[in-house]
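Quick one:
INPUT:
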């Protein structure tokens, strides 16, 4: 039995029927498309629908979520792994009851964990499922190993793109890279496209059709369409004030559409129950990927 198989068995042994959080990974093919803003505002919209929501800032080292909220966390994921902290210790309280976890530089150090450290980490991450109904993973930007591993390990992905040709091209490149990784299977992954910074509903739909056609033709993958968000100056104003748009401009079109996204995701909740594996399983998948890569190098 190799390390990856041992890890799978450990996760199964630690799994519990009590509560498994729904994990939604939000990613993009390039930076600057508004991914983190969508993550934060969607978290608040879901919280308003009665969900317990935690955002994991997986853009390691850049801390986009805490900058947007104007809140500096005391601890991060590295403290969970190496500092003896518990899940409760590293969850920072955000607006309207949402929580968020700063990743620090944690993922870069995962391949150096011993078997015992992996078991401890999985045990602690199982506890995170008890703190949330939905965990939003805000990945880094671009086609990095970390982004590919998070997206590939998730059962539900929101792919953010703008109408700019480079954004659409990069979104396709991300899907292509995921499809080519031998240790990643997207067969059970639900991928929903969010068209951001659009001038109209039609422009967002056109973006989705362009991306969907080429992905289906060349990658044999299926994309779904969540919707389009408008190009509005209030978004940059909210970022400058380090406040979520949905709080600062509650009557804006952006806020209303984000609220509709939350409603759609909650309506589809029953369809995703069978695929829910929780945050511990996501990290287990990610760790297995890194263990295999490390073994191949050695």
């Amino acid at each position: 039995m190799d390390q990856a198989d041992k890890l799978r068995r450990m996760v199964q042994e630690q799994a519990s029927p009590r509560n498994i959080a729904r994990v939604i990974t939000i990613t993009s093919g390039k930076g600057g498309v508004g991914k983190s803003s969508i993550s934060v505002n969607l978290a608040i919209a879901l919280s308003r629908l009665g969900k317990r929501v935690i955002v994991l800032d997986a853009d390691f080292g850049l801390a986009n979520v805490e900058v947007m909220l104007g809140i500096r966390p005391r601890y991060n994921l590295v403290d969970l792994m190496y500092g003896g902290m518990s899940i409760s210790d590293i969850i920072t309280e955000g607006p309207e009851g949402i929580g968020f976890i700063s990743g620090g530089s944690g993922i870069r150090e995962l391949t150096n964990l011993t078997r015992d450290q992996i078991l401890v980490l999985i045990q602690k991450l199982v506890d995170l499922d008890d703190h949330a109904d939905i965990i939003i993973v805000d990945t880094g930007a671009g086609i990095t190993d970390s982004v590919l591993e998070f997206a590939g390990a998730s059962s539900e992905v929101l792919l953010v793109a703008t109408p700019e040709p480079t954004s659409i091209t990069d979104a396709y490149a991300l899907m292509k890279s995921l499809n080519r990784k031998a240790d990643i299977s997207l067969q059970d992954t639900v991928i929903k496209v969010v068209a951001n910074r659009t001038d109209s509903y039609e422009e967002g739909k056109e973006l989705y059709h362009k991306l969907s056609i080429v992905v289906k033709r060349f990658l044999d993958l299926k994309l779904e369409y969540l919707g389009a968000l408008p190009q509005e100056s209030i978004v940059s104003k909210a970022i400058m004030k380090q406040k979520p748009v949905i709080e600062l401009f509650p009557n804006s079109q952006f806020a209303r559409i984000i609220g509709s996204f939350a409603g759609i995701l909650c309506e589809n909740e029953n369809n995703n129950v069978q695929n829910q594996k929780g945050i511990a399983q996501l990290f287990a998948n990610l760790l297995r990927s890194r263990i295999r890569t490390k073994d191949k190098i050695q």
